[in-house]
Design brief:
319 residues; alpha/beta; Rossmann fold; 7-stranded mixed beta sheet; 5-stranded mixed beta sheet; 13 helices; 39% helix
């Protein structure tokens, strides 16, 4: 067990994978200098520029090259810097990586991990602060991962690399410096949620940066005698329906929280599925359907907070 940052945990997972398997490579912009968040720090020195590959500024080219590498037997980690930039490579992701295994009867598999950091990035405005996880969860053929803790950014990264299929790996832009315990002997499987807090009055389901805020909100609710259960989905596809529905059936109330725009967000899928399965009361909390503002007062309109989660929980309990 070691204490490390979210960025260090992912870097360690990639380092170990590259030492164990020479077919693992990474490509993207600025990897040689460690990546913009330090998530590749020291790797080019350790493995050389043939495996930690600096690329031109062309996301379509980067993603297209990674698809070809994967079909040729390599295991590429594709760095998109932030999800906002990944939109330039959507055709390669949606029409090539996601569909190849189906279209060719399993003769080819695109085993790559595409790192696309999501979420609000302070004072970075609308083109650098998006949370687009629902786009990729909607697309058959893709696995979607949203780690919230250093432990999960280590374990889920390892699981993503081992899956053999295209994984959209969504780290949050403002979690890189978050610290926590990491047990390198503990596997974290894809598709398995984590219950971070037990409760009996309502269930709060969230992921990514929403996790710490939901735990904080649950602590505030507990001071008023309200016991909220907090579940971190960890992966959005596949997502852990059994864990969510079992909890919602027990508490009778489900609040789904995410930083993404609430309209057509993945929270709607979770809420509808649980309501259909167990008949619980549901409520969603997400961002308004507005671009993230540059000014702090406007940015705050799109941000989650423990206070907003607490208020939504109290409103659900009042239904």
């Amino acid at each position: 067990m070691s204490v490390m940052t979210y960025a260090e945990a992912a870097c360690l997972a990639l380092t170990e994978a590259m030492r164990a398997d020479e077919s693992v490579v990474a490509l993207g912009e600025d990897l040689g200098r460690g990546g913009i968040f330090g998530q590749y720090r020291g790797l080019q020195e350790a493995f050389g520029p043939e495996r930690i590959i600096d690329t031109p500024i062309s996301e379509a080219n980067i993603m297209g090259a990674a698809v070809g590498m994967a079909l040729a037997g390599l295991k590429p980690v594709v760095e998109m810097r932030v999800i906002d930039f990944a939109l330039c490579g959507m055709d390669e992701i949606v029409n090539q990586a996601a569909k190849n295994r189906y279209m060719f009867g399993g003769q080819g598999r695109v085993g790559l991990v595409a790192r696309m950091p999501i979420g609000i990035w302070s004072a970075s405005a609308a083109q650098h602060s998006q949370s687009l996880e629902a786009w990729f969860a909607h697309m058959p053929g893709l696995t979607v991962v949203t780690p919230a803790l250093p432990q999960d950014n280590y374990g889920l990264f390892k699981s993503a690399l081992a899956s053999g299929d295209p994984v959209i790996y969504m780290e949050h832009k403002e979690l890189w410096g978050a610290t926590g315990d990491v047990d390198t002997t503990r596997p974290v499987p894809l598709g398995r949620a984590a219950t971070l807090r037990q409760g009996e009055d309502l269930t709060i389901v969230t992921w990514s940066r929403g996790v710490a805020l939901a735990v904080e909100a649950a602590t505030r609710l507990a001071s008023a005698g309200i016991k909220a259960e907090v579940i971190d989905l960890r992966t959005l596809w596949p997502w852990d329906r059994d864990a969510v529905c079992a909890s919602a059936a027990r508490t009778g109330r489900l609040l789904v929280v995410h930083e993404a725009v609430q309209v057509a967000g993945f929270g709607a899928e979770v809420a509808a599925s649980a309501a259909e399965a167990v008949g619980c009361k549901v409520r969603r909390l997400g961002a308004p359907r507005i671009p993230v503002g540059y000014a702090q007062v406007l940015e705050n309109e799109s941000r989650l907070s423990a206070a907003k989660i607490e208020a939504a929980a109290r409103a659900l309990l009042a239904q």
